[in-house]
Amino acid sequence: MAATDVPTMPGERAELLTHPLSVIHKDLMIRSLQFALTSTLILSTAIASHPAAAVEGAAGVIRSAEVFTYKQLLAQGAEPMKYSESCCSLLYSPGTPKSEYHFDLRDAYFVRVTVDVVKFAPILFKMSCQKRGLFNPTTECSQRELKDKVDGALRVNYSPSLYGKYRAKWVAKHDGQMLPETTKWIGQDIYSFKRENGMDELVIGPIKGVPTSIGLMGFDELPVTPVDTVK
Predict the structure, then answer these.
(1) H or E segment at 208?
(2) pLDDT of 48-97, one tens digit each?
(3) Per-residue pLDDT, 195
(4) Could you state, in order of their start, the residue ranges of all structural domains in the chain?
(5) Contacting residues for 104 by C-beta, under 8 A, at least 6 apart
(6) Are residues 112 and 66 in contact, defined by beta-carbon separation less than 8 angstroms?
(7) So what's the pLDDT on residue 57?
(8) What is the chain's Cα-based Rg?
(9) CA atoms within 13 Å, Cβ hemisphere of 24
């Protein structure tokens, strides 16, 4: 019987299912399905065993972060801290006993970070313009306003142009828990700052506690290279 003559009436379904062409077709379908499932499993296993390395923060703003003790920081060529004998203190209210906010420099940590300011500045200033609109008011800047703000901020080699009051705040965390702040507007003090070729290099600290991540609050966060692996 030719393939085009295979019965299709309801009462003849048994004959259809046992027809040689139908059996071959079913066998091919099963083999194709098995191959697809096997390929998917192999690919999934390969991806799981080779996760992508985190080379920058989720937003791509913070590009690198390394944590140091003060001794390691000096060994990296950093300038010694002025008045180190009076270091260090947390953010505190008047009348707070010194024992509750003071910590020793020997117990402090510093994080050296690089920030892509060409990418960060437009994000920071996007919603920073004067509110306008009656029914759907917004503070989103026009393209011209945004360009002026970004150009003005990046024109200067000055950390408060992007970090501090009405700007971005640094947050240090240990295993997801925020470490205590040392200053009101910046969150964590800036030990040193340099802006060059669209990148900011900052040393954040002194920080009380070992940070496992550093972030710009509301913008980006990046795990830091552990202190025991920093040479």
Answers:
(1) strand 199-208
(2) 333 333 456 778 999 999 999 999 999 989 999 988 888 999 999 999 99
(3) 97
(4) 3-49, 62-126+157-229
(5) 87, 88
(6) yes
(7) 73
(8) 30
(9) 4
pLDDT at 54: 44
Q: How confident is the model at residue 132 (pLDDT cuts 50, 70, 90)?
A: confident
Eight-class DSSP state of 128: -
Cα torsion 173, 171, 225, 208 to 10°: value is -60
User: Residue 60 gets which letter from DSSP?
Assistant: S
Residues linked to residue 192 through DSSP beta bridges, in sequence order: 203
Q: How far apart are CA 105 and CA 222, in angstroms?
A: 24
> Amino acid identity, residue 181?
E
* Residue-wise pLDDT tens digits, 181-214: 999 999 999 999 999 999 999 999 999 999 999 9
- How far apart (Å, rounded) are the C-alpha atoms in residues 28 and 80? 74
Residues 6+ apart with CB under 8 A from 160: 167
Q: Where are the alpha helices (DSSP H) in 50-171?
A: 70-75, 98-101, 117-125, 143-154
Burial (Cβ within 10 Å: 0-12, 13-18, ≥19) of residue 128: middle
